Every structure is written in structure tokens, then in C-alpha cells.
Give the backbone structure.
Amino acid sequence: MTDSNSPVIQLTEEVGHGGKAKQTKKQKKTKSRRPQEAEDRFAMLDSLPEEKQQEIQRALHLFSLGQRLPRTLQEAQRRTYRFWDSQPVPKLGKRLTIGPITKPDGGVRQEPYSLPPGFTWDTLDPTSLSVLKELCLLLSENYTEDDDNTLRRHFTPEYLKWVLEPPGWQAQWLCGVRVSTNQKLVGFISAAPACLRIHDTERKVAQVNFLCVHRKLRQKRMSPVLIRELTRRVQQQGVSQAVYTAPVVLPTPLATCRFWHRPLTPRKLMDVDYPGLRLNTNLQLKLHRLPKLPKTPGLRPLTIEDIPGALNLLHTHFLESGLSPALSPQDAAHWLLPRENVMDSYVVEASDGTGVTDLVSFYTVTTRVLNHPLHSQLREARLFYCVATATDPVDLVEDTLVLAKAKGLDIYSVLDVMGNSCFLEKLKFVPGENCLHYYLYNWACPTIRPDKVGLLVPN
């Protein structure tokens, strides 16, 4: 789920404003008193019941609606992006030749960028369970929430290990910020190595994810420093391009895709007032009934022996795309092999035993429901890769709806990429309120339609 009050957006908004406001003499005189005053306010807020904190959050959201970052290209063209205008990204409304915007000159900064006083850099080790638990806490409390502060994303160590440790992962690309005095983790940004096919060009890139700063520190402008520091570390390894996604418009989207949702437990979703779904109890219970069992013959969980066949299906699937991953067998095994409560992948085996003919996979994300008398969490399936050559894609995806519901998941979400639009309305998916925008750092090329996007980035 991507939502309008997501800290991802708020962090990006810090980056979008750029520049320091001039202080008056009066402000300077009172500056020395502010840290203690801020600490007192934070302590007071933390002492309030969570229900009261949610009321404050809702009130603050109402006052900030007019200041949020643009959701459309038209809104973005009326905005100034001081930080992004200093970066090698395509400028809004300007045509550039295909290729890198700036070329490496061999002069990569050696020393880390400066942080505000009282904070220090750290390189996180995802092989350490204690570090993963720290990161789970930071992301779960600060990465994303809905407008009313009633739904909040929950991260697990198993999920983060899957996202942060693909083949070739590098610890120095996992940048943390800690408080100097107590070593509390208060900021994070990550990247993982990947190979992309952009139109007809293959490039080694950094796949950037999880830009997050503790909610109490968002006025210290740490987000631009995190981005610059990660860029420095990536460039030290000879990589000059990056790919990232965001739910808001920055300079300049390469592609824009929309989320579609299909309720699996409509009554529960109505109870928690799930954003963007207009549900009527009796009608929705009838409309969203599913078969008891999958219908596709030969459908079974993917195994390590199926990786070569699954990879061949994906390579063929990506031939028509303008943005897709160039996967190795090791990449395919990492991203597709089933992991409990993280990834589920299925293949359809040919009746004559000659190999796999179809592939479908989804990963699981969990959302905490705050202060609800009945429900404490929602579990969401997100369609990953789906390739149907011998099976009707409608039947193949419907089978995964059945399997996801049997696993206790509550909602099934899909991006309208590649050939997904062919089954969305037939399987009663409804368009969500949010879009996901794809961006390339230091690379310019023509925009790509959603049906030509083959890259999916779990976050």
C-alpha cells in the first residue's frame, strides 16, 4: 500500500524544498533553547495514549494537505525542486539525448558527507539479527503510514534479508545514521546491485530502496545527505546509474503505473476502513467469492530445479518491455524461490513433463492496524512476476487469489505493468488511489508505458 501521508513522501518533500530559511535575530537568540523545548514536546507526545496521538496526526494532516508534493506532472511543473535540480536527473519538460546525463570524471569524493552535530554514519550488517531488528523497528515506526495514522507498515527480519541481500549485495551500500550518544538508529537508505535493460541498452545500476528518517528528525534535512552519501558509496564501486520508485512526482518519471486491489477478506477490510475501497457488505461478499481450490492442472510450488525454465519464461516475457531486469540464474533463484511469509512462487508443469509452461509469484507485506478492537494486522499479497504461455492468465492469477486467501492474506494488489491489464477487471480488481513512479538517476531516455514496464521493486 502506498499512501498520501507516507513518510517516504515526507522525506522526499524535505529533499524537494532545498535551501535554509533565513533566520531573524530573534530566532537566533532563541535557538539555544529550542533543542530542550523540542525534547520536552516529544516526551509529552510520547506520553499520550496512542489514540490521542492519532487524533493529533489527523489534525496535522488536514493542515498540511496543501503542502504535499505533487501527484501529477501538471502539479510538478509548477514546483521548484532545489535539491533535484542540482542532481543529474532529467529536468521536467526538457528533452535530452538518450544516455548518461553526466559521465564519470574519475573524481569520486573519498570522505563521507557531514551530518548534523550529534549524529554519525554507520554501515549496517544485515547478517546480524540484532541489526536487522533495529532496522525493522526504524522502518516499522517511521517508513509508511496512512493519512489517519491507523494503518502502519510492519517489517520483519526475513523480509528485509530478502530485499537487502540479493546476489552481489554490498554492506557499504546499506547506509545508517545513528545518534552519537546512545547509538540509536534514526536514518537509513539502501541500494543493491542490479542489471537493467533500458530499451535496447543494458546497464549495471544501483537499485535504491528504503529512504527513511526518524519522524522526530525530519526538520534536520538528513534526506539529501543520505542520498548524497549513498551516491558517493555507489560511485566508488564504478556504478553511475540508479533506479528508484516513489509515490510522488519528482524530476522526471520514466514510467507511471497504478496499483489495483482485490479484496480477499472484504468484511475485515470494511471493519478497518481500508483506504480507497468502497465496500458494501452483502454485495462485496457475493462479488468476491472465490473457488475453494485452484483449477489449473499441474500447478505446484516452484523448486530450485525449475529455475532454468522459469528464467527462460522471464527472458521471453521481457523481450517486449522497455524497462526490465537482466536476471542471472542466481538472481532468479534469490527473488523467486519460496520463503515462508515472504515469497510464494508457482509453476505449471507441462503434461508431458518437458518443463514449465507458466510462472506466477507474489510476495507478502504486513500492515499493523492501530487501536482496533478486533483486528491487529492486515496481510497483503503483491503480484510479482506472472508469465502465462499455456494457461489463460485470468485462470492463473485467480488460482493465486485462492492460494493467497488460503494462506490467510486479506487483500491482493497488482501494478498495471506488462500484461497485467488483461485480467484486472475480469477478476474484480479495482483501481487504487495511488500511482508508483519509476525514476532513473543519471540516465535520460524516452518515457515508457506501464504495459512496457517489466521491473518490479519490492519495498
